C-alpha cells in the first residue's frame, strides 16, 4: 500500500469518526450537562436529537447529486467543514433553538461524507486493496464514539469545551482531506475502469416485491436504537445515580464493542439472515431492558453498553447484506436504502423517547423501545425467485454482488473485509 493510499485512509477514517462519532452520536453523551445549561425538557431533548438524523437524510441526497459535479475532494472537505461549523455553534449555543439548528447542521456532515469517500476509495486506491481500505475507514464510527468518552472525562461537565475541541479536530481533518483526496477528474490508482462501471449500472427497477421487508425492519431497528443513543447516559446518571465517569466508561465500551459487530457477515453466511437478525434484535432489546430494570447496577450498565454497541453495528451489517441480496444488480441501492431507513426510524424514535420519558419515566420508555425491537423480529428475509436463499454455511454470495461489496463504501457499516478475516481465523483456531 502506497503512502498516498495510507494518507487517504487515515483522512477518511478521521472524517467518519468526526462526523458520526463526534458530530452525530456524542450528543447523547453530553446531553445531561446540556439540559442543565440550556434548559431542555425530555421532549425537547429528543426532538433536538432527531435533528442530526434529519440532517443526514437531506445531506446524503444532496451529496450524491453534487459529488460527480464537484468531485470527491470538494465534498469531503465540505463535510469536515460542516461538521466543524456545526460543533462550533453547539459549543456557543445558549438557547434550545440555536442548539437544535447546530445539531442538525453537525448531523448533516454524516450524509455529506458518504458519497465522496465512496468516490475517493474507488479512484485513489488500487482495486485489490479497496476492500482493506474500506475495512479501516468503516471503523471510524466506533473509533469516534470511543474517543468521545475520554474527552468527556477530561472535560467533565464542560460540554462546550469538548465540542470546541471536536470542531478543531474537524478543521484539521479538512486540511488533511484537502491534501489526501484526489482532485476531480483524476484517477491515481488502478480503480474501476469505465467498462467495469458501466457493467454495474442499474439494471432492474427501483421497487422490488420484498423491499418493504428490509425497509420496515430497518425503520424498526432505527426507532429502537434511538432511545439508547440519545438518553442512555442521562438514564445512568439520573436513574442509576452513577457518576459521570462511569457513564463515560459505558459510552467508550459502546464504541469498542461495536467492532465485535463486524462478525455479522460471517454469521449470516453460516446461520442465515433471519436467524442472526432475530438473535441480534433480541440482544438489542436486552440492552434496553437492562438499562430500564437495573440502571443502578454497574455490571448491568456495562453489559448493556457492550450488548448495544455490538448489536447495533451487527444489525447494520445484516441490513447491508439483506439489501445487497435484494438489489444484487443495483448494489448502491441495496447498500443505501436500509441505512436511510435506519436514519428515518431514528428521526421518529428520538422525539418519541423524549416524550415517553417526560410523561412516563425512563423505565417505561426503554421497555417500550425494547418491545419495538422484539416486534421487529417478526419481519424476516424472504428471497424472491432467482435471489440467494437464506441458508447457512453452504451459501455463497454471487460474483455479481461480491465485487461491489468489496468496492462500495458506506460509513457506520461493519467492515466486510474484517468480517471474513475474523471468521476464517475463528474457524482455524476452532479446528473447523
TrEMBL record:
Main location: membrane
Residue ranges of the TM segments: 7-27, 47-67, 74-90, 96-114, 135-155, 161-179, 210-229, 249-268, 275-294, 300-322, 334-355, 361-384
Bilayer topology annotation: Multi-pass membrane protein
Cellular localization per UniProt: Cell membrane
InterPro entries in alphabetical order: MFS (IPR011701), MFS_dom (IPR020846), MFS_Efflux_Transporters (IPR050189), MFS_trans_sf (IPR036259)
Keywords on record: Cell membrane, Membrane, Transmembrane, Transmembrane helix
Ranges where the Major facilitator superfamily (MFS) profile domain occurs: 5-388
Alphabetized SUPFAM superfamilies for the sequence: MFS general substrate transporter
Name recorded for this polypeptide: MFS transporter
